[in-house]
Here is the input.
Amino acid sequence: MVTTDLAQLTGECSAWKDALRDFRTEFSELKERLQKLSLNLTDKLHLQDLEHLSNQFYIQLINIHDLKHAIKEHEQIAEWELSKNGQVTDATWAAHEEFNDKFQQLQHTLKSVKEEFRQFVSRLQ
Here is the structure.
């Protein structure tokens, strides 16, 4: 549960941004690994799976970037509201809850894509 404490808000934003940075690094590495695996593939089904995963890595890297950017903006808005009004608006708190949900959803999606990749690699062996 997100509390109405600005330190909590900025702490959660920082944790999300750190996690997204780690996801970006991990997915960039997986994308490179997929590209290396593609050099030896000729089977049509494997190539289709490879294309699907390549597209997923591309899409998820964009999703990671977009969410990280939106969280940064959200954090700046909260800080601006606090400096202007001495408090953060209810709308910003509601947005914070939505960012928590978006982060959790993206985290779940990334886990699924990583599992798809793991299964793809195991089928190649």
